[in-house]
Design a protein that fits this description.
The chain is of the alpha+beta class. It is 31% helix and 22% strand. The chain folds into 3 domains: 138 residues, Periplasmic binding protein-like II (D-Maltodextrin-Binding Protein, domain 2); 107 residues, Dipeptide-binding Protein, Domain 1 (Dipeptide-binding Protein, domain 1), CATH 3.90.76; 209 residues, Dipeptide-binding Protein, Domain 3 (Dipeptide-binding Protein, domain 3, Roll), CATH 3.10.105.10. The longest helix has 18 residues.
Length: 501
């Protein structure tokens, strides 16, 4: 009986989304009960401990919950837990809220939390988000103590991002198919996934937080790779909300009185990274000359229609310890002086830069023109993701572009600047940098930690390992009748808070 009901429900949802009238009939006065989101990329997995991909994460947050929530002001807020406290530098006590249920009706307990954190720690893709784990001690069904292997300043942040809580028995079953039936405690439940087309969700009627229960009962996640197709679908009413908006269509959408365009800074720098192992790039004055020659206003205007904010630092602004100290502002005459100081012969001033995204290529074409003014010839290579990754790992480039959205500069530095780190495209090996990262990661006092981060960022800016071009933006477009949209600096959208006017 239940299976038959679910099949009927799915059929009704799919039929109702087949045209612009995806909710109630016009003129009936009935409230709309469906939200259709257009998104470019399909998730690869609904297993909460398999990957850390952005598009996977956007869906996982509909199905699963975290112990801690990062609100729209980037404050830590108890979520699955009603309270938490530090018992010592390495022990944290947490108490779950009462009567939390998974979507299959089973209770969420400390055992599930322990299994989830341990699975995150053991995951090849997510282990860095629980590298602090020593053990989880269970006190009772609602109380547990997390013991870290050293003082960790990132514990709460990690718990708010990738430590999704799933049932212990499923996590411990290697044969379980999460893509067919993911079980979580989140605001929505998956009822159908048509590969390449859509995911269909219904509201979790037993959601543990009454004030955060999804306001719109039905949610459809439409997979639409083509940017112009998403734009047309929004304007025609075929979809209600665009997760990723094509930059070239932003002005058109802003001019549409039926559309709201929302844009706010995202905690990711679009940066230019220098390979310190390559001739010319190993010269700090060449790097500083390039940084000083870049007209970032032009690059941002051309690449993002001005929706992104130019930056000169190697890190995103708005995070603890962000600073422009030591970075090179736009100054062509200073750039020419740096080139003179570098002593680099004119016949050695040809460099190659790798990129994999069209907006970055557009920005680089602007930078290419800037660098000609100081006698540098820049060759741009636009690559597919696999080739870009392989060339980056091999160090087969002079410069490479990148982005990295994180909520903490030390987490970014740990992957970008630490010796041997995964995205250390500088091939930097500096004991001073490694020491600052280690010191900051173990420092729990916010003021002391901020001072360490400022010292680290200033040093990296002064040595110009990377130079910021612009800070990415979280840009969404949606039907003007939708209200209550919330996100934050790391783009953690909360679709359950959306409602129809």
């Amino acid at each position: 009986m239940r299976k038959a009901f679910m099949l009927v429900l799915i059929a009704l949802l799919i039929l109702s989304s087949g045209c612009g009238q995806n909710n109630a009939e016009e003129g009936t006065g009935e409230a709309k009960d469906t939200l259709i989101v257009g998104i470019s990329t399909e998730p690869t997995s609904l297993n909460p401990v398999e990957t850390s991909l952005m598009y996977n994460d956007a869906v996982l947050r509909l199905i699963y919950d975290n112990l801690i929530l990062l609100d729209d002001e980037m404050n830590f807020v108890p979520h699955l837990v009603e309270s938490y406290e530090a018992l010592s530098d390495v022990e944290w006590k947490f108490v779950l809220r009462e009567n939390i249920k998974f979507s299959d009706g089973s209770d969420l307990t400390s055992e599930d939390v322990k299994a989830s954190i341990e699975a995150c720690n053991a995951s090849p893709a997510l282990s860095s988000f629980a590298a602090w784990l020593d053990e989880v001690r269970i006190v009772d069904d609602r109380t547990f103590i997390i013991v870290t292997n050293a003082p960790s300043s990132r514990l709460l942040l990690d718990l708010a991002q990738y430590s999704y809580i799933a049932p212990k028995e499923l996590l411990e079953n290697p044969e379980y198919k999460f893509n067919e039936n993911p079980i979580g405690s989140g605001p929505y439940k998956l009822v159908d996934w048509k590969l390449g087309d859509r995911l269909v969700f219904v509201r979790n009627e037993d959601y543990f937080l009454a004030e955060a229960k999804a306001k719109i009962p039905n949610l459809i996640w439409r997979i639409m790779p083509e940017g112009i197709a998403r734009t047309i679908a929004l304007q025609s009413g075929e979809v209600d909300f665009l997760y990723d908006v094509q930059a070239s269509d932003l002005q058109k959408l802003e001019a549409d009185e039926n559309i709201t365009v929302f844009s706010t800074p995202y905690s990711s720098p679009f940066y230019l990274c220098f390979n310190l192992n390559r001739p010319g790039m190993d010269n700090v004055y060449v790097r500083k000359a390039i940084a000083a020659a870049i007209n970032r206003d032009n690059a941002s205007l051309l690449a993002t229609n001005g929706y992104s904010t130019p930056i000169i630092s190697c890190v995103a602004s708005g995070l603890l310890g962000s600073t422009d100290e030591g970075a090179e502002p736009y100054d062509v005459e200073q750039a020419k002086e740096y080139m003179e100081m570098s002593g680099l012969p004119e016949d050695q001033r040809q460099f190659t830069v790798l990129t994999k995204e069209e907006p970055f290529k557009i920005a680089l074409e602007s930078i290419q023109s800037d660098l000609l003014e100081i006698g540098i010839e820049l060759k741009i290579e636009m690559l597919d993701a696999a080739t870009y990754t392989a060339r980056g790992a091999d160090g087969d480039f002079d410069m490479i572009t990148g982005k990295s959205g994180v909520a903490d500069i030390l987490i970014y530095a740990n992957s970008a600047f630490r010796t041997g780190a995964f995205v250390n495209f500088n091939f930097l090996a500096d004991p001073y940098v490694d020491g600052l990262i280690d010191e900051g990661s173990k420092t729990l006092d916010p003021e002391a930690r901020e001072a360490i981060i400022i010292e680290l960022v200033t040093y990296c800016n002064e040595n110009c390992f990377r130079t910021g071009i612009y800070q990415l933006a979280t840009t969404r477009a949606f039907n003007k009748d939708l209200k209550g949209f919330k996100t934050n600096l790391i783009s953690l959208d909360r679709y359950s808070l959306l409602s129809w006017e």
